[in-house]
Specification:
Heat Shock Protein 90; 6-stranded mixed β-sheet
Amino acid sequence: MRDAGAPVARLERDEEAWTPAGHGASAADGGPGAQAAARSKRLALEAASVHQARLFVAATLMDWGLWHLAERALACTSELATNAVAHRAAQGPDVFELVVALVGDTVVVEVRDGSGQLPRPRRRPSALEESGRGLQIVEALCDQLRWRRTPSGKAVWFTLAIGAGGAGGALPLTA
């Protein structure tokens, strides 16, 4: 988790994908690409899909024995999926793709959509503004928040380190 006093809106652009080959060392030298697993799901660009995205991420983390990351992962997933729905492309596909990957000691959650509108985090929304804080929240909860253009739109993803609940630890989930 990021320090509360750290500057906000440090969303980074990354021309490289997070694939094992592009994410660090290769499997041959035991780097982050040494173990990779991924699951993906296509979801309709509608509000109900945000809940479906959270369920998919939760089930994947549980299957991988990484439930300690769920609270932060689900909050960040909600924001990225909500943004995909809210900023859908007028002439793009009616779906977005959610990818959850395990690359070495890192979980990556990516949302790909057909909108060419890139994230524009605000520095500090006023107290009266009803929106504009979502990416700041994601940045505070995850280890890294990045984006890139794709041939069909854009991809936005976050990473969470697996060890000891990630960068800042996780709070226990309550029922």
